[in-house]
Design goal:
Chains A, B: Pfam families: Endonuclease_NS. 2 copies of one chain form a homodimer. By secondary structure, chain A is α+β, with helices and mostly antiparallel strands. The first copy, chain A, is built from 14 helices and 17 strands. The radius of gyration of chain A is 32 Å and the shape is globular. At the A-B interface, β1, β2, β3, β4 and α1 of A face β1, β2, β3, β4 and α1 of B.
Chain lengths: 455, 455
């Protein structure tokens, strides 16, 4: 192996230059590498590694740096544009956004495996005002003051340990990404008759108090929902996902949201309207979209809710996981009381229908022909929700007075309650009696004290 | 200056190593730089420039490369996310998006000075489904099948030369970024009584046929608009911007779009509704948002249109341009016929009101306290639109029959037409007479030919 070395030192103009050239042999050829250190007057010290008559292989170090720099500039330019998009959030700058503690406030950026998986494997339904929380992603609608959609993924290990409790969470609008004048407020719901409906269920987040409380954020996860629907059919649907599907499948991805489109709101024009039609109008009827808005902030009440469920089959024994398609079914549920004997498939619709009504695009990364099959059609058991009887323990838990107990008994008198449910109801009844008794005693005591103080 | 050089050649395991260390003096200190070239068996040749006991200054080259690489990775990750966002467009990949010829189809990316200025100086109203055309930016609403907003900027030189002509453009939905099932179609308007209302006026694009035709794209720039409103008040407003404001100001930025919020749609609950109210409801009336939808695609008809005008003062003689604030005024216009004696300020509203009703945020990059003043309040002449009389030449141009001429005369009989307008009307009348005469002759001729052929 040939070896050579040479050091050149010179003073060029105002620069002090120290440089070395190394000649060496690679294969049959002699190559040289020049290193130059210059210290210009009135400037910072500079170092350059130059290549001189080098073969392709040897100039890689230098070229790498140059090409990395170019690449950095290119993607930085596109990135500047991204930053601009994010400035959509309440005027917060990119730098400020990246400093937000995501465990408390969520973040404008994807920051955990769940986010990357949902983005990378499935694709997101839209890009409007995205916000990333520990266990879900939300797209916020600033006009309607509710989420456009929320997307979550649950697996069996999410329910192994119950750490979080609802009683430590409150509905609140501490959503820093939402400008003040676009915020829902708790008082918008007062007296409206609408309940605050979780899109991502609080109960899917028992393993972390922080992530449970992130489901109580008004603009990110809450829409005005019919109370009966919320506590009955919607609750059964949520339970179906977390009690049944996660046992049968590796993971369950759920996208939920409001729908404002109203397919059947058609009004016939009356005689006056027919006469005053504009030129060229041949309409005798008109179609409308109409939805209620509540409170000072005009929070939009959805006409329907949608839930799209995508499950990932468990790896089979032969490790053929790649060939197993995802299973998907989608449901369109009126935002009104739903009969307790309704079943899930009563509300099944094609995914396409929800897309047209919402303007969202679901699972863009999947090929609908090869990657997806129907969840409900593949095996009927996949879409069998819990019955109204299974729902009773929760409804008993909701009772707050003897009247509530009697109402419930009355409403479900067609059901054979059996010993277990009857015992549960009786013990709840006893509990309520005791509380009511205590309150009565308190009231009596107060009255006596008042009378004594008068005397 | 001290100088030193050392070459090490060795065979380490399976590797052939050629390395040089250069010692040199910078200031008072002796430094060394090690260069190592290794050629591992069964692998590609590798070069490493190592630093060994180097001062901070000298290790910069190496550190630079490492830090650039890290930075590249960081912004690439964020960038991947951006790419995902863009996949929202019709499943088109980032690579495909960047290959679209923007002069024909527009682009998902900002690509000219106008775009960078609007983004950088003012900020965009929202980030939903953005698309960049030669002379405007549009945000598309896939649910309502219309734009959320369009933003354009006009200057006096845009009207120096008339190259483009409307007759070479057609309304079309050749908007590749819009998935098929979210597209408006021309036939959605047929017989609906609604006209196709340009948000960016075609007439603001006379200097390029391509950019004029880009204003005829249905989902990007067209909403269902009342025909009278479109041809009269809205036209006067557009003319006011392009004939008056651009003469007085350096540039005129205009944001236009539809509004669906309906502030006054309040319905009292009747007795039955009061009885069937859900628990906890104390409402005796309900507020609603309601809007018409037309055609198979349910294109949403706005209840109002908004136009926000921001002007940039001309540089003054003292070059104090930086201290001059932008002037802004915003207008909320019912989507219905508007009286021909209405003036612009009748429809002026605070910017804030349009934000609350649309969920958009205007001019996020500007400080409303220091950067913006009111256009209309700063000088009344700034908001004086052309009168109905100024409008007559255009209305005469719209006439297609003797009946149209007579209708127009009748509608504007309260106005003193004067010689110039009367002459214009007479010559139009003559033109129509000649055309009608020709058509009559044609019809007669055809009839005669038919009779001859029968014989």
């Amino acid at each position: 192996m040939k070896k050579a070395s040479k050091i050149i030192i010179g003073i060029l103009g105002v620069s002090t230059v120290t440089a070395g050239v190394i000649n060496y042999k690679l294969g049959e050829k002699v190559k040289s590498l020049e290193v130059e250190i210059s210290e210009k007057k009135d400037q910072n010290k500079q170092i350059e590694i130059k290549h001189q008559d080098l073969g392709k292989e040897l100039s890689r170090v230098i070229d790498d740096k140059v090409s990395i720099e170019n690449r950095t500039k290119d993607i930085e330019r596109t990135n500047q544009y991204l930053i601009e998009l994010f400035n959509g959030f309440n005027g917060i700058t990119y730098e400020q956004l990246s400093l937000i503690p995501s465990n408390i406030h969520g973040s404008a950026f994807p920051h955990n495996q769940l986010h990357y998986k949902l983005i990378g494997e499935l694709g997101l339904p839209s890009s409007q005002n995205l916000w990333f929380y520990e266990t879900y992603i939300s797209s916020l609608n600033f006009e309607r003051k509710v989420p456009n959609w929320v997307c979550q993924r649950i697996e069996i290990q999410d329910f192994k340990e119950k750490i979080a409790d609802r009683k430590h969470c409150n509905f609140n609008n501490n959503t820093i990404q939402v400008p003040h004048h676009f915020k829902q407020e708790n008082k918008d719901y007062w007296g409206s008759g609408w309940s605050k409906g979780h899109m991502v269920p609080a109960g899917d987040n028992i393993k972390s108090q922080e992530s449970m409380c992130q489901t109580f954020l008004l603009n990110s996860n809450i829409v005005p929902q019919d109370l009966n629907n919320n506590q009955n059919f919607w609750y059964r649907l949520e339970s179906f996902c977390k009690n049944q599907l996660i046992n049968r499948f590796k993971s369950v991805t759920i996208i939920s949201g409001p729908i404002y489109h109203h397919p059947n709101l058609i009004e016939q024009l009356d005689e006056d309207q027919l006469k005053s039609r504009p030129k060229y109008s041949k309409q005798t009827q008109k179609k409308f979209v109409k939805y209620e808005v509540i409170g000072d902030r005009n929070v939009a009440v959805p006409n329907y809710l949608f839930k799209i469920i995508l499950v990932e089959p468990k790896d089979d024994n032969n490790n053929n996981k790649q060939q197993q398609p995802y299973l998907v079914s989608s449901f369109l549920i009126p935002n009104e009381p739903i009969s307790s004997d309704a079943v899930l498939t009563d509300y099944q619709v094609p995914l396409h229908e929800i897309e047209v009504k919402t303007g969202l695009q679901f699972f863009k990364k999947l090929n609908p022909k090869t990657d997806i099959q129907s969840l409900c059609d593949s095996d009927p058991i996949n879409c069998m929700m819990m019955t109204e009887k299974d729902l009773l323990p929760r409804l008993i838990g909701f009772c707050r007075s003897t009247k509530d107990i009697n109402d419930l008994k009355n409403e479900y008198k067609h059901i054979n309650w059996g010993d277990s449910l009857t015992n549960l109801l009786n013990s709840k009844s006893l509990e309520i009696n005791q509380i009511e008794e205590l309150k009565n005693q308190e009231r009596l005591l107060k009255k006596q004290q008042e009378e004594q103080s008068k005397n």
